[in-house]
Fold Ribulose-bisphosphate carboxylase.
Amino acid sequence: MAWLTATYLIDAAPDEIEARASALAIEQSVECPLAAIGDQRVLHEIVGRVAGIEPAGDGRYRVDVGLAVETTGGEPAQLMNMIFGNCSLWEHVRFVDVTLPEPLLARFPGPRHGIAGIRALLDAPQRAMTSTAVKPQGLPVAELARLCKTFALGGVDIVKDDHGIANQTYSPFDERVRACQRAVLEAVETTGKPAFYAPSLSGTPRVLRERARLARDLGVRVVLVAPMLIGLPAFADLVDEFPEFVYLAHPSAAGGRIDPVLIFGKLFRLFGADAVIFTNYGGRFAYPRESCAALAAAARAPWGTLAPALPVPAGGMLLERVDELLEFYGDDTMMLIGGNLLIARDALLERTREYVAKVEGHGRTHVALHA
Amino acid sequence: MAWLTATYLIDAAPDEIEARASALAIEQSVECPLAAIGDQRVLHEIVGRVAGIEPAGDGRYRVDVGLAVETTGGEPAQLMNMIFGNCSLWEHVRFVDVTLPEPLLARFPGPRHGIAGIRALLDAPQRAMTSTAVKPQGLPVAELARLCKTFALGGVDIVKDDHGIANQTYSPFDERVRACQRAVLEAVETTGKPAFYAPSLSGTPRVLRERARLARDLGVRVVLVAPMLIGLPAFADLVDEFPEFVYLAHPSAAGGRIDPVLIFGKLFRLFGADAVIFTNYGGRFAYPRESCAALAAAARAPWGTLAPALPVPAGGMLLERVDELLEFYGDDTMMLIGGNLLIARDALLERTREYVAKVEGHGRTHVALHA
């Protein structure tokens, strides 16, 4: 008998929290009145258990629920169903953490490359890394390719598609990936520094597979995928079928009642994300500073045999904040700055160089001064 | 130039709503500062547009945003990305409606069977319909099959797996579907009344396809799928590849910042759900009565050439409430009562018959009295 623990924040008055916690444990396991269950094994080995209730302030409680590992079938979709299926429909419930016992955790291989694999690919053993986004969608392929080349000439490690770029008539997938991949390779020939184009992969599973094959055939090594948009189970399939890609996970469609620290810091990694893009504090999105720190720490923390995932803060990042952000996140981080480079328009190459110099030079002055 | 309209409820003070609405329109389209865009076509034909802002009470505004149809690429995942991708990450945003122009709507075939197809399958041209759930998970296959048979002998139209039943060691998919399908067919031979077993299909896309094939080979006609659990794009693929199934859509994992009326009443139908299970007012979940009415109305309403989908209220339904609920929802409805039948234990057959008699007899007495 093995149990996993799912943790929720539940809004409740003191006299109703026990009932709410117990209702959640039943809803997430047998989903029927206990009076309807005659089977003793089910009562003892399948019904979810409230394992702890702690006040969490502001009329909320932190509730640990034990769920039988056997109920997950060791599968991605069913694991999600057990830990946050029906109870996602309750406005008073927020899903904040999950602890999986070793044999269950071992069913999910996690990142195939992780931080170490990305560092090896980029030939960047220690420094913080850079990425940027080619945008906006609507530009013709030649213009997207020109942006790719400029960014790579400027020294950016990973040049990704904006996540809104799919297979639109103005930049069809096939034509775009060919042109952008070629553009980055040309720049690499000039600079001699590794750089990688990461196309955005989306679509229904069948389309996704076709696009992944095409990208692989073109020599693409890094891809951008939004796991909640394509669905976590489809993401797990993709990673399994195309383990050679480094996966950058995008947060699109991931808003809801799963805590950002959990979804970006743990769940995406569990299902195979090598790097997780999340919205940085002080940008266009309002995650608190401490959530960002916790998220980055969770992505990198020891967790069974799962490789650490690389945190990628993003969303309205400013070149001027690079030093502050690297002080905050440390070197096992990839910066993602897009729009704030593009505003330079004709001076894009110079601004890109400035970005790369800032990130790669971070901390060096101090070292020199100390020496 | 065609535009779709996505509608959001945005929490904002009066002096910040215009900025928030405009930020949303940019986030959901070009996702960068307008100052970074030099291309006039992008500025005029791709950048999202705030089309209307109306106060909605309680510090909220109802905001219509026009998004270029071209940006969706006519694909399920990218449509979701455009209408509720990054903005899902904003706690102050709730996604409440979408209006698609005819040519875009025509890219999504919707229900293959819909209400009319389900009625034909069940040989129930006018009356309200019945369904129930085999549960709890953890029971051995023989017991699940026995429950299936009892329900079908009692006259229930559709006997579905509980959505927590996947491919666990205690009831492996293959063995379970064979046994349950056979059990229902045996009951049908006895009663002479059509009844259908609906297995729960879940898994990563590759697993899902294998299970769907097996179910089809066994003669299954109706399946249960949770679109938000497997992912809406995977659901769209499944419906496309297995159009012969009647799809009951389950709400698991669908909680978040998409309004229930929109997700269950419209989006599930758009992607192919023939019937939508939703949590009824006054049950274990707290949807307001008016949301339930709006949801059922939306599922059945004329919408391009999409067939109407069947509303299936569920979640802590009581036999005693059947008349009230049928008055409320009308005859184009399928009741779903599970646990409240199972509490009868040894008297399950009798209680099931009572359920079926109540639903099928609803309104008849009145007719007789008037005659």
